[in-house]
Amino acid sequence: MRAEAQAHIDTINEALALLRRFLDWDRALRRLDELNARVEDQSLWDDPKLAQAVMRERQRLDEAITATRGIETELSDTVELIEMAEAEGDEDMAVEGTENLGALAARANESKVKALLSGEADGNDTYIEVNSGAGGTESQDWAGMLQRMYTRWAERHGMKVELIDQHSGEQAGIKSATLLLKGENAYGYAKTESGVHRLVRISPYDSAARRHTSFASVWVYPVIDDNIEVEINESELRIDTYRASGAGGQHINTTDSAVRITHLPTGIVVQCQNQRSQHKNKAEAYNQLRARLYERELQEREAAANAENASKTDIGWGHQIRSYVLQPYQMVKDLRTGMTSPTPSDVLDGDLDEFMAAALSQRVTGETVEVEDVE
Predict the structure, then answer these.
(1) Distance between CA 357 and CA 220 in Å, rounded?
(2) Backbone phi, then psi, for 117, in 5-degree steps?
(3) How much is the CA Rg of the chain, to the nearest whole Å?
(4) pLDDT in tens, 144-191
(5) DSSP designation for 252
(6) HEC letters along 51-95
(7) Cβ contact 140:132 at 8 Å
(8) Whether this model's pTM surpasses 0.90
(9) Distance from C-alpha of 204 to C-alpha of 210, rounded to nearest angstrom
(10) Are 331 and 374 within 8 A, CB to CB?
């Protein structure tokens, strides 16, 4: 078997193994049989909400199982075709088979990612919160670059981006910002970006042109709808109002319309200033709080199910997930998966799909990668 064909086969088998592991194959087959039986029971439709949930789960499982079986069958048939072509010395048929394997590998990876985006809230819209670390102007500029990166990534995928809250830096960039991304699987993809991001470059704000290291944290949490219940005790909230301001401290209105809500038991703080109405800002901040508390619950579930990997859900300054080096050489390296890119300019312009797909896969396998950070 030629090397190119074998590489495609390895890629396909890797995707199939991950799909079977993610689905828990034997359990998935039993569950699909159970769901098919429930759908045939006419009494299910006495509860439309329950029936819709059953139909959604059935469709998701059926699509994933059918796709996996289809890829396995096509792989077997194509490999047999190539082996026959090589035995008969039919170069054209061997080349065609190898090309078919390449297309199948791409489809297998698409099926893998689609299956990995089947979590409880993965299909939802999402909030992305960016906060600069210590370091003044340099880290604030870095936070602003990350804000642009996620905006560009969302735009590449046809998502709508809304700026919910932003506190500008004194000279450049931002101290913090919260984006709302609206689009298919927005949270499913973006959830892999939570963590600390590190930038190494020659600072444009240093007259001595020295190399600087800057940090910024990213926090991602899903927008939740009324179908998801999150209990909030009003007595556990502190609600503050303040005057919204824009870049350079210039007031964008003359009333205390901006709202900050602190959830006292957890210390979670959310805020909104993009609306001129205090009532609307309070409603949006309350939605953010519900989303943050729900995301916290999802993280706790994942930590409980993967106790050995619980540290990955603890987002703090010591938990870097990715480094972006612009000088003395150029490289982006994900410290969880080992994924690298030699073109930071592309990544910072929103080319994040491969990093997200690799991180999604790693969340399923639970495998950690020993990766040295880049300097």
Answers:
(1) 16
(2) -100, 40
(3) 24
(4) 999 999 999 999 999 999 998 899 888 889 999 999 999 988 999 999
(5) S
(6) HHHHHHHHHHHHHHHHHHHHHHHHHHHHHHHHHHHHHHCCHHHHH
(7) yes
(8) no
(9) 9
(10) yes
